[in-house]
Amino acid sequence: MTSSTALRQFVLKVHARCDLACDHCYVYEHADQSWRARPAGMPVATMARTARRIADHAAAHRLTEVSVVLHGGEPLLAGARRLGDLIAALRQPLRGVCDVDLRVHTNGVLLDHRFCELFREQGVKVGISLDGDRAANDRHRLYRDGRSSYDKAVQAVGLLRGRYPELFSGLLCTIDVANDPIAVYEALVAHRPPAIDFLWPHHTWDAPPPRPSATAYADWLIAIADRWFDAGRPVPVRIFDSIVSAGRGGASFTESLGLEPADVLVVETDGSYEQADSLKTAYDGAPATGMDVFHHAVDEAAGHPGLEARRGGLAALCAQCRECPVVGTCGGGLFAHRYRGDGSGFGNPSVYCPDLIAVIEHVQRRAARPAHALPAAALRSLATGYGDPDAIGRLRGAQAVGRRVLVAKAGAAGPAAAFDVLRRVAESAPEAFDSAVAHPYVRAWAVRRLRAPSEPSAPPEPSAADEGMLAALACTAAWRAGMSAELTVAVRDGAVYLPGIGRYPVAGKESTTVRVRDGALHVDAAGELEPVRHLKAGTFSVALDDLDPYRDCHEHPAAARLGAEGFARWQASFEEAWTLLEKEYAEYAPGIAGALTTIVPLEAPRDGGSVSSAARDAFGSVGIALPARPEMLCLLLLHEFQHVKLGAVLDFVDLYDARDDRLYHAPWRRDPRPLEGLLQGTYAHIAVADFWRRRTHDRDPETAAEAGRHFADWYPKTLEAVRTLQESGALTGLGEQFVAGMRRTLEGWPAPGTAG
């Protein structure tokens, strides 16, 4: 059984009444009034049965931890002794099955030492609802006789912060645009909470929020966000942290944002399973499942259509949301806020849609995204399978930043003299430094140097040749910068290789001196330079590197140095292949021309088949065994550059949950693949299917027929793989958007055998 449909968060209603009369409360003041027919408190036997159901679910799905929130009403109305009995009944069945992150959400007015000692003993974190300063809090949070609850709530916060700081989980504040946002924020921060959670007031399209302006709620949050950023983000704020994280492909930390599947189940005081409490604002009975802990397993509740709908990700959203540029961060907003009673149900944007867009865009701008971050427009372009010149430029820039970091880390552990030269070039001639380290296999060397000793591909210990690469790179950088340098460089396999320049044969020595003076390179005791040669087609030129000692990192062996005849064959085939690519596959050509710098010739397979590869740690390079026909070289260039692009995206953006260790069927392979392997293969085969699709229109009937057969094979396989990715449940919000873009490209083509 997989954990993709597992529920990990449980809200348990231990007491269904409240000692305050907050007029914005979703339990008592909105459409659903089911609380009236339920017992005030949860019996201990019901809690024990609930815990057994959670334990069975955790064991079946191999969960290592579940999150449980004791909720209400007001949970402290149960009393300290009763709460202690309920917690004991909860913990016992779960002991030895999984850990429990146990919390209580309270208005705080009853919190005292008795409760705190109980919570300390049982490891229960405490979140307090407080809407800001006295004026803001007393706008809604009053006793039934109109008295203020502010002093009691603040006293509870002081008790936690002063005597029980390890229990304090944070403050929950409901947004009210009638309150001064800065006064609210400063009042909350003054309590030095470990976190602040701003909550959207619950409204639907049938009962919309009061709105003084089109983006009143965004404006309120933006004012706070600016103060928060300007102060250096002094406290975690869940909505802002979620926007920053989800915008970069990471997780959201709140149910109201992001495309992650909702995994919350509510258990009422009578043992009924319900969906999220926020649905109480939609219509009477909206949260109900018709199931309970006495007759139904958690898995049965998890399969309820309402809970399934909240796990549907991008595909479950309305068309307007799916096309929105911030949907990967927004996720359509809170499910309940999409409701409209005109028959469309929850198939609408959030009633806060304009506010969500505005606050997400503002926070992401203020988050000072690093130079190597990939903007949403670039990801959307790359998701099509092509990638416009700007998107490829962004990838190239991101990789440049990453290379600088890698080379600096690898170099710092190498010979001091070489690293000093490299550092001086980076400081005084950064363009020359970037040019030197841009050679793809410099990155491959740096990654190899930095791998932990326990990793399979890590070198057993730094070798003289590995150390010598740093000196060779420093000499190359100094030469490109027009600076002087003199370094000792290790000889490897009878030669000194300078990245991207070529190889100097050096016989009978373990090391030699390389001098850089007046724009010239001199290698002591060396023979004539064997240069890295370049293939040319029109204005496009790419290195054919058959010398680099780190090039042999592809899935297939690298070929030895080519003779003049072998290079001439490559040149002729490359020129024809590139001409075809520019003519028939024009969408791909600018990206390849903008980022492909190196081709490594691979050994030809004995069976005469095609062999090609893209090394994950060598951006800008592909490995290819020269095929017999130039059009096949064109196909291999298209195919492998897809891997180059997607590998570069994955260096900086999380498209899937790296913890997913399942294997998936890839229609083009016999062996199942990990998720990244399936994603890589699917993205590459978009170009393969596209190659054959376009050749079905060739004037030569035999060529067109061959292409038709291949397209009829590759197209359904690639589309099947896209569906497998979308159904995996392991894509991040950005991953869902990215794969949806891949699918739109495929479904935009006429299917095999149809006209078009």
UniProtKB/TrEMBL annotation:
It holds the Pfam family Radical_SAM. It comes from the Bacteria. Keywords: Iron, Iron-sulfur, Metal-binding, S-adenosyl-L-methionine. The keyword ATP-binding does not apply. Residues 4-233 form the Radical SAM core domain. InterPro entries: AKG_HExxH, Aldolase_TIM, rSAM, rSAM_sf, rSAM_SPASM_FxsB, Sulphatase_maturase_rSAM. This is FxsB family radical SAM/SPASM domain protein.
